[in-house]
Amino acid sequence: MLLVCRFTVLEPDVADFTARAERALELLIARPGCLRGLLSRSMDEADRWVLTVEFESVVAYRRALSPFDVREHVVPLLSEAQVDEPAAYEPVLVASGGAVARQVSLLAQDAGTVRLGEASGPSATPR
After folding, report:
1. DSSP run (H or E) holding 10
2. Interatomic CA distance for residues 62 and 50, integer angstroms
3. Predicted confidence (pLDDT) per residue in 103-113, tens digit
4. Rounded to an integer, what distance in angstroms lies between the CA atom of residue 78 and that of residue 81?
5. What letter would DSSP give residue 13?
């Protein structure tokens, strides 16, 4: 699972923002199932930033956000992200070691058509 959060940070706030993001990454990467995280700055627009964090699964992501220190430091930072685009993504194709592998979707085949409490299990076929 990939978490992608976009931020607009003006120059006077950059040092504070990067310090907070560093603390957030330290807390998240210490959690089981958190694979890696990156804070990146746009090369085209200096006020645009993106925080990406990769987790083994949705379960690992949800569990990583549970501890008190994460809720105290990470959740407030994430709440400042731009909300005009989705933030959580599941991998479809993964390339490593010279090969590309298709991943099985964790979303149920009827995920977009059922109401809360009516969902079935994960899809057996890749999307």
Report:
1. none
2. 20
3. 888 776 766 77
4. 5
5. G
